[in-house]
Amino acid sequence: MPLKKTASPGKEPTTTFAFTPVKSSQSKIMVQNPVTPANSKGHVRALSLVSNASVTDTPVSNPHAKAEQQLVSALQQLQAIYNDACKTRTQTITIKKSTFEVIATAFNEAYEYIKQPCPVNTKPTGPSNTEICILDSLAEIRSTVVNLDAKYTNLEAKVNNTPKTYADLVKLSSVKESKIEQQIQRRKWREEVRQERQKYGVTLSLKDIDKPEKILSMPAKSIAERCQQAINRLFVNTSETPRVIGISKLAKSIRLQFETEDEATTVRKLDQTKKDVWDTAFEGLKLHIPMHGIVVHGIPIANLPLTMMDSPKLIQQLESENHMETDTIVKISPLRRRMKNRNSETVQLHHSIIVYMNDKHFANKCISNGFYVDYLHYAAEKFVPQYQLMQCFNCCDYGHRATSCKRQSRCGKCGEKHNTRECQSTTVQCFQCKGSHEAWHPKCPVRIAEKDRLEELMGNTSCLFN
Ligand SMILES: [Zn+2]
Ligand SMILES: [Zn+2]
Ligand SMILES: [Zn+2]
User: Fold this and answer.
1) Among 117, 265, 366, 405, which lies 20 to 30 A Cα-Cα from 434?
2) What is the pTM of this model?
């Protein structure tokens, strides 16, 4: 400890320092043998050895209690300095010279007091019980400070080593852990990019178009040009005309991409000015109205089997049961499609369904009041597809469906590069974590990490549509 070196007992302080003694109950120091008043003879002898002015000048009846006070005072000041350093997360602790002197003097005085024999202790040589006790306390204080320092350094290291880039990730000691971290991080980035891209895009639906595949097979440039012409018709001042920079071909829609968020917002509102704005590009082309889905758990399969989900009669019945306007429910689908190769022996009696509505107010009403099937109440929650655990049937990775998967097939059983259905292997290995289980095993660490990530995302969003 540097303090011990600097505050050598022989050195005379140039200033007098004041400190406020604290009650011993606040400190860790326990004086087991209460010291009884003065054995003045011993005192005089002891005091002659003391060089520190403030200690020699005022002979005390209880030197060990004084030492305790000094140690507590020094420790509290060290703690205060340490706490300040923690707040600013600095690695180097800077102490004002005057503060350092106060602490050093406190240690110095404590040292001097401890050297004085305890009045109850008749033996002039060797440390008394009280002295041992105080010395133990001092050792304890020292180790506490050292411990705090180690903890702080450790914490600092953790803060600095939080994985941020691939390079950082690779450094993680456990390869397995780092691989899972990488996958989670990549999904996080994909999700961020997706959300960002959506702000600059306008989705147009091909659902009401006679032969949507005919449009989708056209060159992207031609589609973009025709949409641009449709937009141009509504703008007199060409400098303000939003410009289509490119398109994306989706399954049943096309997405126009713009340079700015403002342009996309303007284009999204064009059909309010001119209802058939998109018909001039392709007849039947419409602005895609996002659906609002709610998840309803625990519906008896017998009441709402998969085969009945797209029955208009059932949809009508549900709309009336739930006091909705007609055509509010767009579609109903099961929350989870079953993995074809999963051999499950348990017979499922209930399932979770997603009810898609074109009106967010009705969706919100269901979330707050519940959803009724055959007059039985069920709790409903907001369906956010990107927050649902989704595993691809083709590549067994998370975050997308097989219908949009462009990757090579990955076997969910043996982890090799073939479709799970074609597997002839007798061994089972999860390709994501290398554990001996199938890729969709509930105890797979990758699956658990993905679930945690989604739950965290979910926790940060509102439970209603806004
Ligand atoms: Zn996939
Ligand atoms: Zn296989
Ligand atoms: Zn696994």
Assistant:
1) 405
2) 0.46
